[in-house]
Amino acid sequence: MRVDGSWFRDEQGRRLILRGVNLGGSSKVPTRSDGATYRRDSLDAPRDVSFVGRPFPLDEADEHFGRLKRWGLTFLRLLTTWEAIEHAGPGHYDREYLEYLEAIVRKAGEHGLSLFIDPHEDVWSRFTGGDGAPAWTLEAAGFDLRNLHATGAAFLHQEHGDPLPRMIWPTNNSKLAAATMFTLFFGGNDFAPQLKVDGEPIQEFLQRHYVEAIAQVAQRVRGMTHVVGYDTLNEPSAGYIGIRDLAALPALFRLGATPTPFESMQLGEGATLKLGTWGIRMLGIRRTGHQVVNSEGVRAWREGAGCIWLAHGVWDRQGGMPRLLKPDYFHRVKGREVDFSNDYYKPFAVRFIERIRRADPQAVIFLESEASCLPPRWERGDPPGIVWAPHWYDGLTVARKKFVSFLGVEGESTRLVVGARRVRRSVAAQLAAQRHAAAERLGSVPTLMGEIGIPFDLDEKRAYRTGDFRNPSRALDRSMQALEANLLSATLWDYTSDNTNARGDQWNDEDFSVFSRDQQTDPSDPDSGGRSLDALLRPYPQAVAGEPLAMTFDRQTGVFIFSFAHDSGVAEPTILYVPRLQYPNGCRVSVSDGEAQVQLDEQRVIYRHTGDRKTHTIRLSRG
Fold this sequence. Notes:
single chain; alpha+beta; TIM Barrel; Immunoglobulin-like; 2 domains; 15 helices; globular
């Protein structure tokens, strides 16, 4: 597989539309740890950690890879984490985990699956309420892991307990710990030049170790032709970079007790503050009351360390009263407004590309910037062989855990969209905007939706109690239709081998997995355990002898229509994936010209067009 202009192509020159999954949700957490977050009797982060067995034990690989191949989900975004590779300390790599990961990657290739490696993180680290970075990165910045929850520097499920407030974990992006770490990682040279680790600037220390950790993976799997490339970093956050006023509440992630950045800094230094609380209501995020935070007056910083932003003159405590001295400190550098994507993410991405390609010269690199941000601008002379891999979710369905066919939210504006048809058009337009942004800012590169999916625990987990998955299927169908309307490749979030109805994907109560053991009523049936397969499994062109023009599928009638303009330089036929689940009694095929061969045992249709016309159409219907 290679990148050519705005398409993926195979060795025969056919354009590819890729369908697959993120593998998997529980890869965010270890299989073994000496502490869920930290050891209360020690300032040292846990070291006895293992991620061997993520995404699943090696002896289960044939089962799961075989199922994904049967389902036509043949392109994987394979999750790993920085912590999984380098949890024991800077430069100490987990050889057992790397050997396991290499074996899993090799096994995927044996099943005919292709993949790219995703160095995953959410809100920096599992020690700040997410996943990704090792604990020692926070220690290097001076944080005391024992006090992050108490000071409001992070919201931790482990500390709060059950039930977890819905969608509370993204709020950690705006809280002190994660926001500080992302600012240091991407912009430490500009914003914290005094902070060094053994004489090395904190930005260099963090980026160097991160990039070298992922290079350990690249060196092991290089030469495996089914490994297409690497994501730079999942959902990178700007931290404080770009904030215009540190005294203002965050525009996004306003749930629970929500401090301004300046209040977060005060809390981290031991202040006790009464904060407004926010919650999800029918018409959006609304204020719900107040909460006292850090009543014990503890500090988020280790003994001998202190607030980085206090040390850099962002604020002070003259006379015992906190004063914000530089409210736009992170908005301007040397008199110029900063742009996170171009000024900070792009230099990191270029550094990542250069190091990974020393290990694997053929690697394709998948770029993504902060959620809701535009891609960086790619100029002549910047590294080639890139893909734009943004994420998109149906925000209203995810936040409310309910599917309402006639209600939606329109992207950045958060404008309410009313009417089922209008919502479908809005979703398709939002995905189209991602492709247009890539064309405008990155040039002619492929767009692959790196994450798109729906929660299956809708309506208070009604589907698990009743077996009625109609609402999850309707929600998933709407997203899949938008992919089809835009001829987009995608890796759905997600496939979690150890998903359960009670704990979802084993992380922060998320439950997006298209597979669960709890739905596996008949282990002898390879489809058993699948969720909403009537919406998930649908025909699509896997390899096209030309340029795709249009694609639609109606899951109620089973009618699939695909058209393309042929490429005279391609001799091999067009191949469609045709799931038996949609066509249990056979598949009828009509074509504009040429001939089609139905191979239902292989779940495919092979179509050979003629040269008599430029465009060709294939129509499938149920037998």
